[in-house]
Write a structure and sequence with these properties.
CATH class of the largest domain: Alpha Beta
Strand content: 5-15%
Distance between the termini: 19 Å
Order of helices and strands: EEHHHHEHEHEHHEHEEH
CATH architecture of the largest domain: 3-Layer(aba) Sandwich
Number of helices: 10
Low-confidence stretches: none
Oligomer: single chain
CATH superfamily of the largest domain: HAD superfamily/HAD-like
């Protein structure tokens, strides 16, 4: 964790989901294979399956942008079908027990709440997925609200976080995430940004501009004593 710390205890902490709370690769490796197996079976995509690293490296983007990056030579029909299959298979695999939270997530969220920090999720994912992961993994009751681009039809995470702040009357908060979109959303809304450097699939320079960088989720708690001084 770097040395720069928050100056006050936040009213709230707003978390990205994939690569921040949830080890997405533990779910997507299976989902990715199933999506492209089905696309081939249906004759919508004949080329070899793109590397899973392309999909993981696109997390944090809007879903339409993800498929343009992962499957740039795919037809609009293939992209649309991939959207449907991705959500279907994510929900199926979650229900079967696939996918894991990062170590210490549940305990750290509980400790943050016990200290009076309001907790939220803001993700560029689809509504059903963003609500399913916390529910299935047993942490949904820690959050006051789960905001997703899929539900609120926002074009950027900046807009999504702004809607959340306005709706809940939050004036100072932490934005916690692993992608440049999280840093941008936090900085554009005047928040203290905590970059998460443990997902393993971020791009170089992704967290530039963060106020603090953590390398394990429980390190968030190390910011709290200084924030309350």
């Amino acid at each position: 964790m770097n040395e720069k710390i928050a100056s006050q205890l936040p009213q709230a902490a707003i978390f990205d989901l994939d690569g921040t709370l949830f080890q997405t690769e533990t779910l997507l490796e299976t989902v990715h294979r199933r999506v492209f197996d089905t696309l081939r079976e249906e004759g919508l995509y004949e080329k070899p399956q793109p590397p899973i690293e392309l999909l993981l490296g696109s997390l944090g983007m809007l879903l339409t942008d993800i498929w343009h990056r992962v499957m740039p030579d795919g037809s609009p029909e293939a992209h649309e079908r991939a959207n449907v299959l991705m959500l279907q298979y994510e929900l199926e695999e979650l229900e079967s027990g696939c996918g894991q939270l990062y170590p210490g997530v549940a305990e750290t969220l509980g400790e943050l709440r016990s200290r009076g920090v309001r907790l939220f999720v803001a993700s560029n994912g689809l509504e059903e997925y963003v609500k399913a992961v916390p529910a299935v993994k047993g942490i949904a009751d820690q959050f006051e609200a789960l905001y997703s681009a899929g539900e609120f039809a926002t074009a950027t995470k900046v807009d999504l976080v702004r809607q959340l702040l306005d709706r809940f009357g939050i004036e100072h908060a932490w934005m916690v995430g692993d992608r440049s979109s999280d840093v941008e959303a936090g900085k554009s809304n005047g928040l203290f940004v905590v970059g998460c450097d443990y997902a393993g699939f971020r791009r170089e320079g992704e967290l530039e501009g963060s106020d603090a960088v953590i390398r394990a989720f429980p390190e968030l708690l190390e910011l709290l004593p200084q924030a309350g001084e």
